Every structure is written in structure tokens, then in C-alpha cells.
Amino acid sequence: MRKIGFLAGLWVLLFNTGNVTVAADEKLAKEMAAAVNSFLKTLDAEQQKTALAAYSDPVRSDWNFTPRERKGLTLKQMNQEQRKAAMALVELVLSQEGYSKVEQIIDLENVLRVTETRPANDTYRDPENYAFLIFGKPGSAPWGWRVEGHHLSLHFSSIKNHVTYTPSFMGSNPGKVLADVPQKGKIILRAEQETAFRLLNSFDGSQAEKVSLGAKAPNEIFTSNTRKASLEKMEGLAMRDMNAAQNAVFKDLIMSYLQRYHVTLKNQQWSELEKAGLEKIHFAWMGDREPLIGPGHGHYYRIHGPTFLIEFDNTQNGGNHIHSVVRDLTNDFGEDMLRAHYEKGHP
């Protein structure tokens, strides 16, 4: 019993000093390296050549969420064993909910083939056109990998056993499946949309006036697929200007994005937000105040803090085509940590 009490006390001590977070981060970094190496072992020499790039290769920051040809090894180029190993990487770094979203986003390519009356072998709407690309040597410092395709772009870097996950893009076309297909009624990014409307409609007159940036929503997220995310200023309503109930809903909205990821990444990001000041995070809105679908409809919102940005846009296809992105304003692609790593290692 004494031994158990001692271990429990040690656990509390470690937790309070932040060492538990460090240990969890290192554990995830090592698990990610092991999973990527396991994936690479399933590939032949030619496939490895396609799937590997230098960490310094400019393609690492050349990202996009449109259906296009990409560098990397696609699901189409893999056998079943290789696909299973590739998707295991995604499953490792995401939560169960996040992984489910990825599977559903990929499956929407099948919906678009039907609704756009494209042939079964169409390459434009292709659920197998999702490419995996590894940068550097897994387990070294630094290294990383990404998976990217239509409406999906996930980036992970490991620098000194610290894992970063931005930029991180998830989209959904359609936002709600209306067509008479097996996926009919599906809404992949439901929490991200419904919680935002719940927050918006909780504001009184002066709050609503402050949060609104315009009656018409933009046709795209403002930062698009830029290498470095940047907005001139934080606009809208700050968390400090919301009441307790609104604060709770706003935190739920932020968490609807963070809970896509592995619990270590989620906790790591939330800790960074607290450190920068939750009260400074702003919420801004443009467009319809109700989730309407049809010509001329659409809505957009952003969550903008000192170090963090989320954009959500649902305006294309009559307000039924969603783009959402999570950006770290200082550390996308692990750049801030990479800079510190090189400054420390190469004074």
C-alpha cells in the first residue's frame, strides 16, 4: 500500500511539473516514427522513392486541398497491406472521431462521382487519389509526413520529439449529402457548424453587432493555402467580452476542432492557448445567421487568437460546401521549433 501511495504521489508531482506532458509528447513522437517505418517496410524500392522527400524540400510547404496531382505515394499505388499501414498512420495521430471524419471525407469522392455523373474510373473525383509523403528520416530531427487529397491536408512534424500538426485542413462537399445515395443525410462537420450557430445566436444586440464583419460571406477562407497564415488584426468579439455561458459554448467550438487529434496533440494545443490567453481569442462572423442551403446563401466564421487561427467557410454550392482549417500563426510546419532547433544546434 505504501508503494502504491508513493507512486500516486510521484504521478501528481510529475503532472504538476509538466513532465507528464513532455513524456506523452515523446511517446507519441516515437510511436509515429515506428508507424512510419513500418509503413515504409511494406514498400518496394520504387515506391519508397516516390514516398520519400528531404525535410528541406520546398514541396513540404506546397499544400493544397483541391483535386490535383500530388507528389507522394497514393492509395491507388498501394496494395491492401500497404493501404492498411498508411491509414494506420492517420489513425495513430488522430482521435477516433478525427479518423472517422477522414474516412468520410474520402468517401465523399464517391458521392461526387454520382452527383456529377462521372464514370466509375474517373480520376478527378477519386477516393484513391490521396497521397502520403514522408519528409526526412523518421526518428531523426527533424522529420515529418503528410497525407493530402481533395478536401484533406494533414501535416505532422517531429522536432526533438515534439510533434506539431498544422496546417490542418478538412473540407466537405457536400456539407450535407442531399442526393439519393447511401450517404444521404450525412453531415461530416456537424459540430463545427452547429456549435458556431449556437454561439452566434446567444449574443445580444451589441455583441452581435461587434461579432459581425459583414452580411455577405466570402467565397473562400481568407488564408487559403498560403505557406504562412496571416491576418492583419483580430476582429469580432473577444472571449473576455462574453458571459460565462457563451464562454463555455465558445470553448466547445474550439474543442470541436482540437478533439479531431490525438489526445496529446489536443492537450498540447489547449495548453498553448491558455498560455497565450484564452480571453484574447476572438470570434467573428460573416453571412447568413441561419444554416440555409440554396442560391445566394452561405456563412463564414473565424476563431483568431494571438497564436492560433481557425477558419470555417460554407458558401460554395449555395452554402453546402465546407472548408475548414486550423493554423498555428507561429509554428505551422513546425517552423518556429525548427528555427529554435537550428539556432541551438548550430550557433
Task: Describe the fold and architecture.
It is built from 11 helices and 13 strands. 40% of the residues are buried. The radius of gyration is 21 Å and the shape is globular. The N and C termini lie far apart (50 Å). The longest helix has 23 residues, at 19-41. It folds into 2 domains: 2-166, no CATH class; 190-330, no CATH class. Strands 1, 2, 3, 4, 5, 6, 7, 8, 9, 10, 11, 12 and 13 form a 13-stranded mixed β-sheet that branches. Helix 6 runs antiparallel to helix 8. The chain has helices at 2-17, 19-41, 45-51, 80-93, 96-115, 190-200, 205-211, 244-258, 263-276, 316-319, 335-345, and strands at residues 52-53, 73-74, 131-135, 143-149, 152-159, 162-164, 168-172, 212-214, 237-238, 282-287, 299-304, 308-314, 322-328. It is an alpha+beta fold. 41% of the residues lie in helices and 18% in strands.
